Amino acid sequence: MSTKDGQGAGRDDGEETEERSDPEGPGSLNNRGMSLTSAGRYDEAIVLFARALELDPGNAGLIYNRGEAWRRAGMLAEAEADLESALAIDGEEPDLLLALGLVAYEAEDYDLAEERYERALVLKAAFPQAWNDLGVVRFRRGNYAEARVAFEKAVELLPDYGDAWFNLRDTYEELGLKREHEKAAARVRELGAEDPQ
């Protein structure tokens, strides 16, 4: 079973008007860096985020986006350092805690990942991505009953959330819930959320 987790979307640094007037300003560099991150060109994105941070050193959005590029590049220590820096600037934001949870999960520190997802959910209970990622950690630990609760909450909040339906389908299978498994499998097919592997 290959559970699906969140991917991080990047953050807007709020510099849209500057982008139009200065293509080398932090806003423009951020937008280009986000595009490069989405395209899988992480090293180039990290360079652009670093240049933007030279111009706007305390910008938590830029730091977050560089952290996301680091994470996607597999540089988890660098990702965690940037995300912790953004957290120190912005305080406990659910999206930052979700991103830090994903870094911990990818480092196979499931205790820390679970703690970070739970902290995000205290701040924002209606956060389907955090519920899904919490379910993934619980599934990996073999705690299928608690994983089920988390995945069901994710799809309750976001009924078209394909990754959570995919995970819920596999959780029902592990729990031996045949009828629920069949319903979830149908929903996965309907949403086109089959495992890409």
Offer a few descriptive terms.
197 residues; mainly alpha; Serine Threonine Protein Phosphatase 5, Tetratricopeptide repeat; 11 helices; disordered N terminus
Please characterize this protein's 3D structure.
- The chain is mostly helical.
- The protein has 11 helices and no strands.
- The termini are close together.
- It is elongated and about 55 Å long.
- The chain has 2 domains: 8-91, Alpha Horseshoe (Serine Threonine Protein Phosphatase 5, Tetratricopeptide repeat), CATH 1.25.40; 123-197, Tetratricopeptide repeat domain (Serine Threonine Protein Phosphatase 5, Tetratricopeptide repeat, Alpha Horseshoe), CATH 1.25.40.10.
Please write the CATH class name of the largest domain: Mainly Alpha
- The CATH architecture of the largest domain comes to Alpha Horseshoe
Query: Which range does the strand content fall in?
Result: under 5%
Main sheet record? none
User: How helical, in percent, are the residues?
Assistant: over 70%
Number of helices: 11
Over the alpha carbons, how many angstroms does the gyration radius reach?
18 Å
The tally of structural domains comes to 2
First-to-last CA distance: 10 Å
In one word, what is the shape?
Answer: elongated
Number of strands: 0
In CATH, the topology of the largest domain is named Serine Threonine Protein Phosphatase 5, Tetratricopeptide repeat
One letter per element, helices H and strands E, the order comes to HHHHHHHHHHH
Derived from helix and strand composition plus strand pairing, the structural class reads: mainly alpha
Q: Taking all residues together, what is the mean pLDDT?
A: 90
Which runs of at least 5 residues are low in confidence (pLDDT < 50)?
A: 1-9, 13-19
